[in-house]
Amino acid sequence: MMWKKHQEPHRHDGGLKTESCASGSPQYFDLKERIHTRVIELMDMSVVATLDPERLKGEVTALIEQVLAQESALLNTREREQLVQEVQHEVLGYGPLESLLQDPTISDVLVNTAKQIYIERAGKLELTSKQFRNDTHLRKIIDKIVSAVGRRIDESSPMVDARLPDGSRVNAIIPPLAIDGPILSIRRFSRDLLHLRDLEKRKSVTPEIGELLRGIVLSRRNVLISGGTGSGKTTLLNVLSEFIPSSERVITIEDSAELQLRQDHVVRLETRPPNIEGKGEITQRELLRNSLRMRPDRIILGEVRGPEALDMLQAMNTGHDGSLTTIHASAARDALSRVETMVAMTGLNLPTKALRHYISSALNIIIQVARLSDGNRKIVSLQEIVGMEQDVITLQEIFCFEQTGIDKHGCVQGRFKATGVRPHFVDGFKALGIQLSPSLFDPFHVHEV
Q1: pTM score
Q2: Considering only CA atoms, which of 250, 290, 294 is closest in space to residue 268?
């Protein structure tokens, strides 16, 4: 048994003998909190640590049922089963969020204070019936999540990024910054790793573009993936990493580890926030500089968002070809402007023309991704950086997606097509044994979706 010796569940005569505890009622929440508290008191943590997850789940369920049997609440069979499951989620998981996190069709869980939880499914937001008891309950779950990865959240540090054990990305913000109460955002990642063929089935990309993407990675081009929030940048980055040869040493650098690389030889680095005294912070820039001394074949930066842009460009320009990163931007040209702005954040006083030349010599490809109005994600543009014309970085688009309309079900209609431009970088494909279809860049070959 997993409860402490000399203790056993005892009967609670809390005045609920004749009072119904319908699901969602204040009495139901009181009962659940009382059972949860009693179960925690009875659990022997030294025994818990020795149990495997399945046995622990069974033992906790049995203990909850015994504690519940001592209560005088009026519950029907469905409510009783629901209560046992919800207390189990409180003890072993993340409370009201647990069932949502177990649903593979949900991509985002958005908690807008204790009484309002939205989810995103198939690109669309839905309001759920799930609720926390109050802000204190929500804070306990947030603390449980962030403490597991060595982070903290309090009034002196009211914002935090963290991750769940499955790699899902978490952001939390609490009062006084969040005016109405604690806010929690969870970006989930598929338990089953997506492959290029999965993106093709979802019509996010065509086989022709996929063929070119494979060649780009194998030929060690430096790639910048650009897009808005939730547009699929990290998903595409994971898919592209599939083509990195297993013989190469890959180093990943992220604010919150979420990449799911498939290779065996991967070194994962993650930033560290400052401690309660404001010391000990390790930034992406410091990790990037350190990674150059770790003999990387490729460096993957989860997202470039600050001064580390300069170090990334330096790495790309000094022999670390085949590097990949993402950036928040609405178009390829905007992505270059953002990189330029980030380099300026370092205080490096370079003439504009020299800086842009440095950027154009480091980056080879910009892939623009977007989430469309129907919730679907697509590669909407693939462009090559070909150099400079006076003070301007020159781009040429290779593939694009053109939206042509919306059908009666609200689904976006459009077509993928080549622009007819043959990129300069494919000239080296043949020497590497990378074969492309002769009609790959034919502008008359249109793929309707």
Answers
A1: 0.80
A2: 250
